[in-house]
Design goal:
The complex is a heterodimer. Chain A is an alpha+beta fold. Chain A has one domain: Lipocalin (Beta Barrel). Chain A is built from three helices and twelve strands; from the N terminus they run H-E-E-E-E-E-E-H-E-E-E-E-H-E-E. Chain A has helices at residues 2-19, 84-91, 146-149; strands at residues 25-29, 33-41, 44-50, 53-58, 69-75, 79-80, 103-114, 117-126, 129-132, 135-140, 151-161, 181-192. Chain A has an eight-stranded antiparallel barrel with strand order 1-4-5-7-8-10-11-12. The two termini of chain A are 33 Å apart. In chain A, 25% of the residues are buried. Chain B has a single domain (2-162), classed as Fumarate Reductase Cytochrome B subunit (Up-down Bundle), CATH 1.20.950. Chain B is mainly α. Chain B is built from four helices and no strands. Helices cover 73% and strands 0% of the residues of chain B. The chains are: A alpha+beta, B mainly alpha. The A-B interface holds A 41-42, 44, 46, 81-86, 89, 171-172, 174, 177 and B 25-27, 30, 34, 99-102, 117-119, 122-123.
Amino acid sequence: MSMIRTSMTSLLLLLAWSSDAESSCFVGGSGGGTLEFSGAVEDTEFTGSFGDFNVEYCLGEDGSPETGRISVSVALASADSDNADRDETLKGPEFFAVAAHPEARWKSVAIEAEGDAWSADGELTLKAISLPQAIRFTLSPDGEDFLARGQFTMAGSAEVDRQRFEVGTGEFSDPEFVRNRVDVAFEIRLERQAR
Amino acid sequence: MMHWAVALGIVLQFVWAWRIDQVESIRQQFALVNQHKSIGMAVLLLVVLRLAWRAFNRPPANPEAMAVWERRAAALSHGLLYALILAIPLTGWAYSSAAGYGAEFFGLLDIPDFVPQSEALESVLARVHYGLGIALLVLVSVHVLAALRHHFVLKDDVLKRMLP
């Protein structure tokens, strides 16, 4: 009797495991994508990128992007704008303060379709300041069943007001010197997370 | 006139280079660098105009009393001065482009970049720009001493005829 029970339990566990074996979470990062930022100093634009970041998109039931959850983490010390002086300043206490706050995080709160694209309200945590931050993105190939396909690409952008996160303090806080708006652009290939 | 305008520009450039090095505020440093770039482009423009003018108007002859070695030394140092006064703003321009900020002319012109943005190129050009600046400082000292020698030792009209 006890042997049968043990077998039944094992079978149930196996069933539970196999039904959950295919994760609905897709992951990607710097290995298969880009995350860029552009700002302006004295009206001169510059573009940089983060060499180390991770994205996780857990799709909702039936693979729906809308009911899913997205979370992003970015290693701020990986910022590179191809100018040694500027990058040093960016990582310093007036900007990212990477020594005290090595990571920035963003997580979605609500995702909704907007025509062919998507928009997501979320919360960005930068320098220990958490504030609402929206992003827009597209998912491709459009309209396919990502769960069946096992991978998709997410590309999009966000407009970040650096002042709200105290990025650029002291003499850098003047928007005449350093523009407040920072444009963020990303394109990441996400693959189904291995169990 | 052109000579003294270029000379004034060069003096200002050394003063500005020194101030850029001294100032603490990055914003002020930015402003000074932009002024340094603008003065440099003005010097480049003036020296190109001066060379063009010289191509059609030969400079007055050297004093009769000058020895062959003195004529050769004068021709060589003048040639080097022109080469440096052209090369320094050009390397500065390239240095600005490599740094990703571009050249500047008092905010009036959109000056194109002629090298791509690159950290490696920037650090090389920074050293070249600085090294050529030091070479110019040495050569200008020789130039000034030679002019004073003409005036006070040789007592010819070489310095006097340079008066505006």
